[in-house]
Amino acid sequence: MSGAATTNTGQKATPEFRQIMGHPAPLWMLFATEFWERFAFYGIRWALVLYIVAQFYNGSGAGESDANLIYGSYLALVYASAVFGGYIADRVIGYQRSILVGATIMAIGLFAITIPNPDVFKLGLATIIVGNGMFKPNISAMVGQLYGINDTRRDSGFTIFYMGINCGALLAPALTVPLANAFGFGGVPAYKIVFFAAGVGMVLSFIWFQIGRRGLQGIGAATGALASPARVVGVIVGAAIAIPLVYFLLKLGAGTLQVILLVLFIILALMLIVEGIREGAVARDKTIAMMIIFFFNVMFWCFFEQAGSSFTFLAKNIVRRNFGSWEFDTGYFQTVNSLAVIVCAPIIAAIWVKMGRRNPSIPRKFGLGLIFNGLAFLLLMFALTSLIGGDGKIPFWTLFMVYVLQSIGELCLSPIGLSMVTKLAPTRLVGLAMGGWFLSVAIGNNLAGIFASEVSGKTGMTIQSALGGYTTGFYVLCGSGLLLFIIAPLIQKLMHGVK
Fold first, then answer.
1. Contact in structure between 410 and 371 (CB atoms under 8 Å)
2. Rounded-to-10 torsion of CA 413, 415, 419, 420
3. Cα separation of 446 and 348, whole Å?
């Protein structure tokens, strides 16, 4: 097909891509690239808190609180780094080269955490964080660039891309849990095998994008001054300096980190609003609407991300996982979210299309996401008060369905959020705005670690501590969802017709 055309306004138009299954062909290349990156990311997700307790606390429940805090801070910094990664892509080396540099750095970090030393472990996490910041926001932003601004397939395209994320996330624990158990010793899985497999997945992501990026027809490529090789060298040097700084942030603790993240978010919000004002009243209003939704996004992820922290200890200590002689491994719970998303994503996407003009607005879809997340916590409240057996444990199906309910909420919110940013952000700062989306996720994730630490307490999770924490989660989530439904018309007005 031909390259990018030019509109009568002089702006570069979307290239005329070959279509596969009704979408631009490069979407499927980005799908596969993200598949392997998410395989790497989720490959270590199920193992991190368990590894910290087993390796650095000799398996004592007293280590759960610290493991939750480290996990929350790690995830927070992963998403916060997207702010800087978006800026680097926008203003320094372009999207494509940012993705390749980020993939390389992530792979190095994943291989580094196989070394069982607490300081090297945190330094490896810091390396993963820096690499992910350059990778994650930019590949998401490129998906939006495959479609014209008024292309009605955009939401559907992001949903397909989101399925790529979840296919990788599904395969990761399904492969790495049995690997870890096969090479484990004394009942403790070989977590180093998990981390090594994740590193291999990241290498595959790099190779796939490097081979397939020619099909992008210049989308995301560096042009003009951004194409200078010296800039790539400068970014690599900057990353080498950033890794020890991120390591220092991990050492500071979740409370101090939360203050830093909030300050960063305020600065970013001001930058985007100023840019929106420069572009005119409509762009200003759209940016303000985006900022309001970012706040509710924090609430969602604060409780959704219990999946990798407090829910892991809930599964290990309080959920009945035995089926005769076979035990459902704790790590396999991480596949439920991905499986539910893969099954439900086409159904929910079809529902949005079928509803036509009655399709809920973006704010109300976010409200639905919060409410479904809240219903998951309501189920836990019921299980922890009415379904505890003589062994002091709750039925397997309850936690399974918690992940399913959260997944439905996620589908109402997360893929719609990625699409929303590309529609509402100031046109010159889409990458930075995508970084803002991930920064709101970061704040939520760090709060998730703090919340999970309280649920586990000083000696490890108990039925009483879990019930108290999850009751709070229910009220916060459902209250936030209902509030968002009430103010949705105001937000929609600020969006000036964006659907």
1. no
2. 10
3. 29
Distances from the Cα of 422 to the Cα of 141, 252, 287, angstroms: 7, 34, 11
Name residues whose C-beta falls within 8 Å of residue 327's C-beta, 6 or more positions apart in sequence: 321
Other Cβ atoms within 10 Å of 129 Cβ, number = 28
Query: What is the distance between the alpha carbons of residues 363 and 129, in angstroms, rounded to a whole number?
Result: 30
Q: Measured in whole angstroms, how far is the alpha carbon of residue 200 from the centre of its chain?
A: 20
Residue 491 has which token pair? 């937000």
Asked if residues 149 and 16 have their Cβ atoms less than 8 Å apart, the reply is no
The SS3 of residue 394 is strand
Within a 13 Å sphere around the CA of 492, how many CA atoms are in the beta-carbon half? 15
Task: Yes or no: say if 447 and 298 are a contact pair by the CB < 8 Å rule.
Answer: yes
Grouping H, G, I as helix, E, B as strand and the rest as coil, residue 468 is: helix
Chain Cα centroid distance, residue 357? 30
Three-state DSSP state, 24: strand
CA distance 138 to 24: 18
Residues in the chain: 499
Closest residue by Cα to residue 127 from 295, 256, 242: 242
Sign of the torsion formed by the C-alpha atoms of 276, 279, 280 and 283: negative
Which stretch, 5-19, 141-155, 357-371, has highest mean pLDDT?
Answer: 357-371
Tens of pLDDT, residues 252-270: 889 999 999 999 889 988 9
Q: What is the spatial distance between Cα 93 and Cα 456, in angstroms, rounded to a whole number? A: 43
User: Running DSSP on this structure, what letter comes out for residue 246?
Assistant: H
* Domain 21-494 bears CATH identifier 1.10.357.10: no
Spatial distance between the Cα atoms of 73 and 56, rounded to a whole number of angstroms: 17
CA pair distance 183, 175, nearest whole angstrom = 13
109-135 pLDDT, tens per residue?
Answer: 999 999 989 999 999 999 999 999 888
The residue ranges of every structural domain in the chain are 21-494
Dig out the tokens for 489 from the structure: 């018309």
